[in-house]
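FW: tagging you since you asked about this chain on Friday. Here's the raw sequence from the shared folder, copied in full. Didn't touch anything.
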Amino acid sequence: MFDAAASATAPATAPAAPSALVAQRAPGVPVDRLVVGRDVDEVAALLPRLFNLCRAAQGAAVEAALGRPVATAGIAQEILRDHLVKFHVTWPAFFGLPPAALPADWATGGEALRRAVFGAPGRAPVTAAEVFDFLASEDGVAPVLRRIDGCFAPGEAAAPGIAPVTPETMWDVGPVDNSVAARTADHPAMRAIEAARGRGPLWRAAARLFDIERVIAGGVAAIVAPRRGEAVVPAARGAYAVRIALDGRAVTAFARVTPTDHLLTPGGVLDRALSTLPALKAGLGPLLLDILDPCSPVRLREGTDA
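HL: got it, structure written out here
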């Protein structure tokens, strides 16, 4: 097994031979079979209970698709909580670090949250110099990001050349990038990380910094309802979409697309990231998978066929 903690302090090397890891995906849940024929309000209440991740986003997608007003406070709290758990609990565990308690004021975006995430500056880095100064510091979550960065050389476990998802391509479950990183890719610091490291694990992990800052500033990405019965909403992993058709109050058709659908599509972000993970670093597969963050079960195994 590859020692992630040791790698975090080792100098980066040139990418080696690709890993032989492939992803085994679990069958999806046939949501349409569970909701077609039910009353629309029953469906709106049922979906968040069926899936314990991104509950507010899933409920909001149904409400927005029905043309109902949607409050984004629940989505904002989901995004904050998910990102903070990654930085304070999940990722430190990969490096043998103890978990840290979430800031007491995390849900309200107060000063303690800013210090816990960004350190003394109280804000996310912006320029290339700032972002790499931050990574070298002990500010906020920088030590965790630095360890992630130390595990992968530039270009390793990267998935370049995949277009970011848009409301128009949301329903194309081909290789599009539906992730927090794609959502924040135009941030100057994200561009600096991409230029230096590629669209690899650091780029994807650091994206949560800028998503947190957006939420603290009082906003989430826009909810888009391009037509009656359809909506795209922001979620902790990317964008979540719902299509729903009614006959009176009864649901006659239902479909959804999640960030994980795009992540796991053949030739998508996960497959490309695994193809650029060196064989000698195959033990980093679980860390890479956690950074990519599928919301359904995925197993990694050696082999050449998925």
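FW: The two ends are 22 Å apart (CA to CA).
HL: agreed, and Residues 1-15 have pLDDT under 50 and may be disordered.
FW: great, closing this out.
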